[in-house]
Amino acid sequence: MTCVRLFARAFPLSLPVFLSFCSVLSAAENLSRDSISSLAPEQASVVESRLREENRRTREIQTPKSPEVLYQPAEEVKSALHEETVFIKKILLEGNTVLSDKLLMPLCGPYENVKEPLSRLQQLTRILTKAYSDRGYLTSFAYIPPQTIRNGVLLIKIMEGTVDQLEITANRYFRKKQILAYSKIREGDILRLDPIQKTLRALNQNPDRQVTASLLAGKKPGSSKILFTVKDQFPLHLNFQQDNYGIPSSGKEEFTFMLSNNNMTSFDDIMNVGTVFGKN
Fold this sequence. Notes:
- This protein has 280 residues and is of the alpha/beta class.
- The chain has six helices and 13 strands.
- It has a four-stranded antiparallel beta sheet with strand order 1-13-12-11, with helices on both faces. Strands 2-9-10-8 form a four-stranded mixed beta sheet.
């Protein structure tokens, strides 16, 4: 007699696969020359333990320490500044939304109420850009637009990079719509590294799917396209094991069959089915 333990997180669509697998197991049992004894409670406990271990292994979170996101740093906008020395009384910032003036203006303090060459102010734009990149805003940057300085007031503009498009490529066994459902960032958002890394961690929990992200130039100025490249494999696995760890009542020689599907209904649901039978 075959003892079957089913651990599944699946919808009724799993039934045809389960029935097919059972027919395979039945055929394997008929090939046995000796009759199969009923499993004792101890043997059933062994089966359940193995199935739980397989279920834990296939659902184990494989979280990378730091998911890699390929990108090119925002290019510095070269302003048409010359060596003329002017008195800068006040600096105004324009375009910053995710980082407030309260945070950025202290960085501008050393460049106010001083007489400096205009070209030295390019250093301030690099400092402001670094304030963004240090917080994960990889494609945001500061620049000095062409202007005429009046009353000692200098304008610095901030270009906050946005997400223009999300694209999935190279997926074979996992649907694009389901992959995008994991995304923590949306089109039109200010691009930031942290939600991209969280998306990759969630996607890479499935043992049959590994995803990387690249940042490419978008269609609009200051925008980027996030390209998710998928490396996946067929999510259905059949495992067989033979050993002599059985007990006399059910047979010292054991045969274990396990069927796993890590994308049972295309919603990342995991199903594990297994059976053990023995003979003396």
